[in-house]
């Protein structure tokens, strides 16, 4: 995708532009034409970023980015209409078109988040997550009604038409829908860990900035202090830019697809982050509840009521007990997950080399083929058979043979270092490598490196052991469009390499296999 190499410089340029805009707004506070022009340019840039994302994005999440693009375009067009009414002194009625597009922008963002949640069909982890989301939503709705919506409606009724009131009340109501989706994302651990943290942070931060700015906008509109080209416009612009830049980061390679030897430490790190994240989000509803209780005490002077204080203390103790139970359950679940993780590791990894076994390799290959069919990436499967391994076993014994297999696994991991690779041991002296995001030239380099690594002598228990490798490869999608085809073609290429004397690699090319 274009601009990926310019991502950091673009962020620096936009940051400098925002800083210059702030300085000019401070220097010329009454020049509405200058301010509105400066504030309109970032919206066009954000739309351009979203268009590029949709243009080059493939797979299921293209629809998500399409909704984001439509929302950004609606926002930019609404700003153009509103600013044009300022530049050319157009009738005030034309701003209703801008209001309609701004509401459309919020609806598009809401639909994008709903689509994102629907993609994660398994993100509801029981009734507790649902209740946590509903509790937080009840708190937010209550606070919004109490301090934002109802007071501002009463103010707007004194100086606005009913149509204007309805149009502007839609903003906080649709914002509540966005907040509800964001809460589901927060309470769905699978979403937080599956997608790039940067992408999710940019999107959610941008949308939260819109929600907060909308709340202040409704208040300023109600009291008659809102003006075009003000600081709220800048907050909205920064939010739309964050959402636009999220699209550039969505093309990064997913985390966690590293080499096989780093998988264990990565899994443990994710497990530790998961435990901390689960505990923080578990106490979030209680924090919100006590915040509302504090407001209730302050509003109605209940701190002088002994009965209420007694009930509150009892409730506080029960909630503290509940938090202790949650923490205890979290520790028990952590131990269970550790035990299950150990069992899963034993079931999916080779005991001698600690590499993934056939079962895990097949599963990961299925996932890679599915992802490649959606994204258009190229991947390759490599089969490796150790030449003369039986002779080593017969001459030096099975102990040396096991040492040799272990050292072969280390050399294979070294040969694919720096690549998005999965090295596995199928059985005996047979190994496989899956390469993702690989080019034809990159595949040739890896194959040559594997042959070179295996041809070097192995120093094992004062014995200099000489073996080599028969290597075969097939790539997706040109030389195999399914897992079965890739495995069959790579295996055929490997056997041809072995029949020609070994210590070489072959690349499957349809009916013809190229010899190297």
Automatic annotation (TrEMBL):
<feature type="transmembrane region" description="Helical">
    <location>
        <begin position="169"/>
        <end position="187"/>
    </location>
</feature>
<feature type="transmembrane region" description="Helical">
    <location>
        <begin position="306"/>
        <end position="326"/>
    </location>
</feature>
<feature type="transmembrane region" description="Helical">
    <location>
        <begin position="199"/>
        <end position="219"/>
    </location>
</feature>
<dbReference type="InterPro" id="IPR029787">
    <property type="entry name" value="Nucleotide_cyclase"/>
</dbReference>
<keyword id="KW-1133">Transmembrane helix</keyword>
<dbReference type="InterPro" id="IPR052163">
    <property type="entry name" value="DGC-Regulatory_Protein"/>
</dbReference>
<feature type="transmembrane region" description="Helical">
    <location>
        <begin position="231"/>
        <end position="251"/>
    </location>
</feature>
<keyword id="KW-0812">Transmembrane</keyword>
<dbReference type="InterPro" id="IPR000160">
    <property type="entry name" value="GGDEF_dom"/>
</dbReference>
<feature type="domain" description="GGDEF">
    <location>
        <begin position="377"/>
        <end position="510"/>
    </location>
</feature>
<dbReference type="InterPro" id="IPR043128">
    <property type="entry name" value="Rev_trsase/Diguanyl_cyclase"/>
</dbReference>
<protein>
    <submittedName>
        <fullName>Diguanylate cyclase (GGDEF)-like protein</fullName>
    </submittedName>
</protein>
<feature type="transmembrane region" description="Helical">
    <location>
        <begin position="283"/>
        <end position="300"/>
    </location>
</feature>
<feature type="transmembrane region" description="Helical">
    <location>
        <begin position="12"/>
        <end position="28"/>
    </location>
</feature>
<feature type="transmembrane region" description="Helical">
    <location>
        <begin position="100"/>
        <end position="118"/>
    </location>
</feature>
<feature type="transmembrane region" description="Helical">
    <location>
        <begin position="64"/>
        <end position="88"/>
    </location>
</feature>
<dbReference type="Pfam" id="PF00990">
    <property type="entry name" value="GGDEF"/>
</dbReference>
<feature type="transmembrane region" description="Helical">
    <location>
        <begin position="130"/>
        <end position="149"/>
    </location>
</feature>
<keyword id="KW-0472">Membrane</keyword>
<feature type="transmembrane region" description="Helical">
    <location>
        <begin position="34"/>
        <end position="52"/>
    </location>
</feature>
């Amino acid at each position: 995708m274009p601009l990926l190499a310019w991502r950091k410089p673009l962020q620096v340029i936009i940051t400098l532009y925002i800083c210059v805009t702030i300085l000019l707004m401070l220097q010329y506070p009454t020049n509405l034409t200058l301010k509105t022009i400066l504030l309109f340019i970032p919206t066009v840039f954000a739309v351009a970023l979203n268009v590029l994302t949709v243009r080059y994005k493939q797979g299921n999440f293209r629809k998500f980015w399409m909704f984001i693009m439509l929302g950004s375009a609606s926002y930019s067009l609404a700003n153009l209409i509103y600013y044009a009414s300022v530049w050319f002194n157009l009738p005030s009625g034309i701003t209703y078109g801008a209001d309609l597009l701004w509401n459309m922008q919020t609806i598009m963002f809401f639909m994008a988040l709903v689509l994102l949640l629907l993609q994660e069909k398994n993100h509801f982890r029981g009734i507790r997550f649902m209740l946590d989301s509903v509790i937080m939503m009840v708190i937010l709705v209550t606070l919004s009604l109490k301090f934002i919506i109802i007071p501002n409606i009463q103010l707007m009724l004194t100086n606005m038409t009913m149509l204007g009131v309805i149009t502007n009340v839609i903003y906080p109501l649709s914002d509540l829908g966005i907040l509800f989706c964001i809460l589901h994302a927060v309470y769905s651990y699978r979403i937080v860990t599956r997608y790039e943290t940067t992408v999710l942070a940019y999107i959610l931060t941008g949308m939260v900035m819109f929600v907060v700015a909308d709340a202040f906008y409704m208040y300023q509109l109600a009291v008659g202090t809102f003006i075009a080209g003000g600081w709220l416009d800048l907050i909205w612009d920064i939010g739309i830019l964050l959402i636009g830049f999220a699209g550039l980061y969505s093309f990064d390679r997913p985390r966690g697809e590293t080499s096989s030897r780093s998988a264990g430490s990565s899994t443990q790190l994710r497990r530790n982050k998961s435990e901390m994240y689960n505990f923080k989000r578990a106490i979030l509803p209680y924090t919100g509840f006590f915040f509302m209780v504090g407001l209730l005490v302050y509003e109605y002077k209940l701190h002088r009521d002994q009965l209420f204080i007694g009930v509150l203390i009892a409730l506080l103790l029960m909630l503290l007990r509940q938090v202790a139970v949650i923490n205890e359950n979290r520790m028990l679940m952590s131990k269970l997950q550790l035990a299950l993780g150990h069992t899963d590791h034993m079931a999916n990894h080779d005991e001698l080399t600690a590499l993934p076994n056939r079962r895990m390799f097949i599963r990961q290959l299925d996932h890679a083929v599915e992802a490649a069919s959606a994204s258009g990436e190229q991947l390759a499967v490599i089969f490796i058979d150790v030449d003369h391994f039986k002779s080593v076993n017969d001459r030096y014994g099975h102990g040396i043979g096991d040492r040799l297999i272990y050292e072969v696994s280390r050399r294979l991991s070294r040969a694919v270092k720096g690549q998005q690779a999965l090295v596995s041991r199928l059985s005996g002296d047979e190994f496989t490598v899956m390469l993702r995001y690989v080019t034809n030239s990159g595949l040739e380099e890896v194959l040559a490196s594997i042959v070179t690594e295996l041809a070097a002598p192995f120093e094992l228990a004062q014995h200099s052991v000489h073996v080599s490798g028969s290597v075969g490869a097939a790539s997706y999608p040109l030389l195999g469009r399914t897992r079965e085809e890739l495995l069959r073609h790579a295996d055929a290429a490997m056997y041809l390499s072995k029949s020609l004397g070994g210590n070489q690699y072959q690349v499957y090319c349809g009916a013809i296999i190229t010899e190297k």
